[in-house]
Amino acid sequence: MRNKNIKVKIEHGHASQRSEDYSSTAYWYQTEPHKKFKSLLPVEERLPREEPKEINSA
Q1: For the whole model, what pTM was predicted?
Q2: d(Cα 33, Cα 35) in Å, to the nearest integer?
Q3: What confidence tens digit (pLDDT) does each residue in 1-58 have?
Q4: Are the C-beta atoms of residues 38 and 44 closer than 8 Å to each other?
Q5: How does DSSP assign 10-56, residue by residue?
Q6: Residue 43 DSSP class
Q7: CA dist 10 → 3, 7, 45 (Å)
Q8: Which of 24, 21, 20 is nearest to 8 (CA)?
Q9: Is the peptide bond before 42 cis (omega within 30 degrees of 0)?
Q10: CA angle at 22 for the pair 25 and 50, rounded to the nearest 5°
Q11: What is the largest CA-CA distance in the chain?
């Protein structure tokens, strides 16, 4: 039987004062032949996002 679900929990401390960016990777296996894959996005559109800069109003 194949598993089709995953449950992941992440706790990062009391009051959740931290901000983290997590990503995942998935693998799949297939038999040949297969349909042609869609083109990947350009590298610039696949790069990680930057965190917004915090502005101090002191």
Answers
A1: 0.27
A2: 7
A3: 677 787 877 766 666 666 677 778 888 888 888 888 889 899 988 887 776 666 665 5
A4: no
A5: ---SGGG--------------PSS-PPPPPPPPHHHHSPPPPPPP--
A6: H
A7: 21, 10, 27
A8: 24
A9: no
A10: 115
A11: 63
